[in-house]
Specification:
Rossmann fold; 2 domains; 7-stranded parallel beta sheet; binds 2-keto-D-gluconic acid; 10 strands
Length: 307
């Protein structure tokens, strides 16, 4: 970017304050935020005449008021595709680690508590032969489904509309038009929908209670999709088998109760690292650069996000 544009970089590896963001949108022609930068309608209202593009370094654009940007004729782009496989890999890691009690196993080694093999020692739950319910069979959901098939799981999914047969046939995926019905029948549920006003607390207290008591929930999408307090209550009551979370409702804050549940082996928590690979970050940067270059050259950027 330094070679191509006149850039001002945030080199501190800490998010801008809202005041610093306002300063940036007043002066810049292109803004490159990450998920930690909240470009809300208030920030956009203070944007200078020059600001024409918000080139998000990330796939999800829930950190940006896309409608407000469109009203001000500011284009928004994202980085789809390049973090799909990495996020699916990390989802799979959680999907194996939670039922097979990886964290407890590690803790046993670290605490010098391994005194010898026992037939009842560290018994978890098998994943092969189990039904996996994917909420949101998009790019990442499909990549998770492909992996899950290789691990012998039966793939089910809920979308607002059935996905194309070209996607679902190879996965042998069963469509559930009712999320409630699907939740009630799954052994493992994995969330892959975007965060929108419509998916806020999609997994509400009522829906969480529909899940089987031994079921496992995996969330590598967005924390706000799950009612975290209700999830904690459900786990506490022993009415859910376990949870693997890479995202949190009040990120970066991690609820104390979740940490306690992790110590008890009912939760496995990671710090939003689903897409964190060197390769992925470089490809995201290249995609951002292409979006900016095309925009500045007067073309339609390839990864426009529509309101
Ligand atoms: C990104 C993500 O790294 O792209 C997304 O939607 O959730 C992350 O994995 C982050 O958004 C960077 O801005």
């Amino acid at each position: 970017m330094k070679q191509l544009f006149d850039v001002r970089l945030n080199t501190d590896d800490r998010p801008f304050t809202q005041a610093e963001l306002v300063q940036a949108v007043r002066e810049a022609r292109v803004l490159v935020p990450t998920i930690t930068d909240r470009i809300d309608a208030g920030v956009l209202a203070q944007a200078g005449e020059e600001l024409g593009l918000i080139a998000n370094y990330g796939n999800g654009t829930d950190n940006i008021a896309v409608n407000a940007a469109a009203q001000r004729k500011i284009a928004v782009t994202n980085t789809p595709g390049v973090l799909t496989e990495d996020t699916a890999d990390l989802t799979m890691a959680l999907m194996l680690a939670v039922p097979r009690r990886l964290r407890e196993g590690l803790a046993a080694i670290e605490d010098d508590a391994f005194t010898g093999w026992r037939p009842t020692w560290m018994n978890g739950r098998r994943v092969s032969g189990k039904s996996l319910g994917i909420v949101g069979l998009g790019r990442i959901g499909s990549a998770v489904a492909r992996r899950a098939r290789a691990f012998g799981m039966d793939v089910h999914y809920h979308n607002r509309r059935p996905a194309a047969p070209s996607i679902t046939e190879a996965l042998n995926a069963t469509y559930w038009s009712s999320l409630d019905q699907m939740l009630a029948h799954m052994d493992i549920v994995s969330l892959h929908c975007p965060q929108t006003p419509g998916t806020f607390h999609l997994l509400s207290a009522r829906r969480l209670r529909l899940m089987k008591p031994e079921a496992v929930l995996i969330n590598t999408a967005r924390g706000e999709i799950v009612d975290e307090k209700a999830l904690i209550a459900q786990l506490r009551a022993g009415e859910l088998g376990g949870v693997g979370l890479d995202v949190f409702e009040h990120e970066p804050a991690v609820d104390e109760d979740l940490l306690a549940l992790q110590r008890e082996g009912k939760a496995l928590l990671l710090p939003h690292m689903g897409s964190a690979t060197i390769e992925g970050r470089l490809e995201m940067g290249e995609m951002v650069t292409i979006n900016i270059r095309t925009f500045l050259d007067g073309h339609r950027p390839p990864h426009l996000v529509l309101p």
